[in-house]
Amino acid sequence: MQRVCNASPLIFLAKIDLIHVLPTMIKNLKIPLGVYHEMKGQGDAASEWIEKVKEDYVIKIDPVPTIIESWDLGKGETEVIAYAHSNKHLRAALDDKAARNCAASLGIDVIPTLPLNK
């Protein structure tokens, strides 16, 4: 399944030293530019990884539909949802509850990092 990913799943995978396997597990991974900007320069494994792969996975999202902007989410979550909204075949990797609620209201298939609290 193809995915568009927010920062928190990437950070989590980096912390458990599994981020390097992500591209082999997910076909056509997309990471919005807003997520890249949230992660870069943090001096951790996730920011180092995203710098290495940005040419392959980071995409620019324009424009964001007003309905999504009105949820007043973070830049990364907003762009993940906007991309998934225009590409219905994707699953959105999101952990933030408000972002998951926004995505669900738009019929977007969401997967959290750890599916404990759906």
Q: What features would you describe in this structure?
A:
By secondary structure, the protein is mainly alpha-helical. The chain has one domain: Rossmann fold (3-Layer(aba) Sandwich), CATH 3.40.50. Helices cover 49% and strands 10% of the residues. It has a three-stranded parallel sheet. It has a two-stranded parallel ribbon with strand order 2-3. The model has no long low-confidence stretch (mean pLDDT 92).
In short:
This protein has helices spanning 7-15, 22-25, 33-39, 45-57, 66-69, 75-86, 97-105; strands at 3-5, 31-32, 58-59, 91-93, 110-111. With 118 residues, the chain is mainly α.
- The CATH architecture assignment turns out to be 3-Layer(aba) Sandwich
Query: Which term fits the overall shape?
Result: globular
Helix content: 40-55%
Describe the sheet with the most strands.
3 strands, parallel
Count of DSSP H/I helices: 7
SS-based class: mainly alpha
Count of separate structural domains: 1
Report the mean per-residue pLDDT as an integer. 92
Give me some keywords for this one.
118 residues, two-stranded parallel sheet, 7 helices, three-stranded parallel beta sheet, Rossmann fold, mainly alpha
Summarize the SSE layout with pairings.
Layout: E1 3-5, H1 7-15, H2 22-25, E2 31-32, H3 33-39, H4 45-57, E3 58-59, H5 66-69, H6 75-86, E4 91-93, H7 97-105, E5 110-111
Parallel strand pairs: 1-4, 2-3, 4-5
